[in-house]
Amino acid sequence: MLKSLNNFILISVTFFLISMDVKVGIVSNRKTSDIKIIPVNDSSLVINGKEIKNKLRIFFNKKQIIRINCGDEILEFKNIARILINGTASISNRSNQRYYRGIIDIEIRNNSLFMINTIDLEDYVLSVLESEAQNVENFEAMKANAVAIRTYAIAAKSRHIKDGYNFCDLTHCQFYRGFKNIRDITYKAVNETKGIIMEYKGVPIWAMYHSVCGGRTEDAYDVWGYDTMPYLKSVRDTIGRVNLCSEGFGYRWITKISIKKFDSFVKKIISKNRKEKFLNIKNVIYSKSGRVLKFDIVSDKKKYTLSGVDFYHIAGRNFGWLAIKSTAFEVKRDNKYIIFNGRGYGHGVGMCQAGAEKMGELGFDYKKILKHYYSDIKFVKLY
Questions:
Q1: Helices in the chain by DSSP H: which ranges?
Q2: pTM
Q3: Distance between CA 275 and CA 291 in Å, rounded?
Q4: Nearest-angstrom CA–CA distance, 15 and 382
Q5: Could you give the CA distance from residue 217 to residue 354 in angstroms, rounded to a whole number?
Q6: How many domains does the chain contain in total?
Q7: What is the pLDDT of residues 315-331, one digit of tens each?
Q8: Are the beta carbons of 197 and 378 closer than 8 angstroms?
Q9: pLDDT confidence of residue 3
Q10: Parallel, antiparallel or unpaired: strands 196-200 and 203-204
């Protein structure tokens, strides 16, 4: 697995040396048949070589023809409508509005308009940095986040290649929400680290990161079962006696879920049997860092073994994403509740953003921050 992964990454890097553009599928755009694009400030739009400075309305008809109302004329496209943005444009539908740069390709997928945003790598890093590190204020920590985001983008460049783009705009890849309200510190962090990535033995690393580790990061193998990622090992998130992420949201947390509510969850999601009755959670097995590897949900009829990671995602979809903030928890039952006593927020692998913030405050530069979280890495500059 690792050999093929390395070959894949090397191919990606070779491509990057030729082209620094990435394609982002705007999957967060809910199913829509009508999109409005408006150039902002002194920006303009270009379609088929024609420059347009007014609002566009994009829709499609029963024959699956994309139609663009330019005000004075309507343009029609059979497969893909490509719009070049000179500057920045507001793009909205009934559910949201965001600001984009680069090229927007619009096509029809599953009877809905679907957008792919082609954008320069550094602009992509800029947008993701503002989205993923919106609570980070220390400059060196921001630079560390910028390098991690850029490195991950290169390593994961073919994640959605079968869908016709490189990344989605959700946290499944990296959170990308356009270019509204980008802070000055974000621009500066991207500019001062331009082109810098991390490598392990000559290969760009999968630079995972998360909000708060709760005192110790996790080994990647114990979360995703990768054959080997020597640079993603569990590390104590301390410097001397300082617990680096102790001020972060979710450093310690307690969630109580009523027995009645948890019983309904088990019947609907786990057993899919309305006649079963939930009894307890037992046989919890932990990783070396203290995160749940697996446990048994026991009913009056049988037991169901779940991995900690699967439960984290299933619980998030059913109880809300702030209910079970990580897999680092202890669990017990009383007469009324299932009680989760936990630490940390996120998967716990790689860089702890709250810890990086504290390291920056303590005077560490971004390279020392990154070397604390990623083992035996080297820094290289792509361009």
A1: 2-18, 121-132, 139-155, 184-192, 220-224, 259-265, 308-319, 353-361, 366-373
A2: 0.91
A3: 32
A4: 11
A5: 12
A6: 3
A7: 999 999 999 999 999 99
A8: no
A9: 39
A10: antiparallel
Q: What is the mean pLDDT of the chain?
A: 93
Better-scored residue on pLDDT, 147 or 32: 147
Residues 6+ apart with CB under 8 A from 268: none
Q: Are residues 94 and 134 in the same domain?
A: no
Domain at 69, CATH number: 2.60.200.30
In the predicted structure, residue 226 carries a pLDDT above the cut 80: no
DSSP 8-state code for residue 352 = E
Q: Please check whether residues 191 and 159 belong to one and the same domain.
A: yes
Asked, for residue 303, whether it belongs to a domain, the answer is yes
Look up the domain containing 326 and give its range.
253-342
Task: Verify that 319 and 375 share a domain, yes or no.
Answer: no
Q: Are residues 263 and 359 in the same domain?
A: no
Region 164-191: mean pLDDT is: 96
What are the tokens at 12? 């990606």
Q: Sort residue 39 into left (φ over 0), alpha (ψ -120 to 50) or beta.
A: beta
Same domain flag for 358 and 218: yes
What is the spatial distance between Cα 167 and Cα 19, in angstroms, rounded to a whole number?
16
Q: Quote the radius of gyration of the chain (alpha carbons, Å).
A: 23
CB atoms within 10 A of CB 362: 15
Asked if pLDDT for residue 29 goes beyond 80, the answer is no
In this prediction, what percent of the chain has a pLDDT beyond 90?
Answer: 89
- Measure the CA–CA gap between 198 and 109, rounded to whole angstroms: 36
Q: Is there a single domain that holds both residue 142 and residue 226?
A: yes
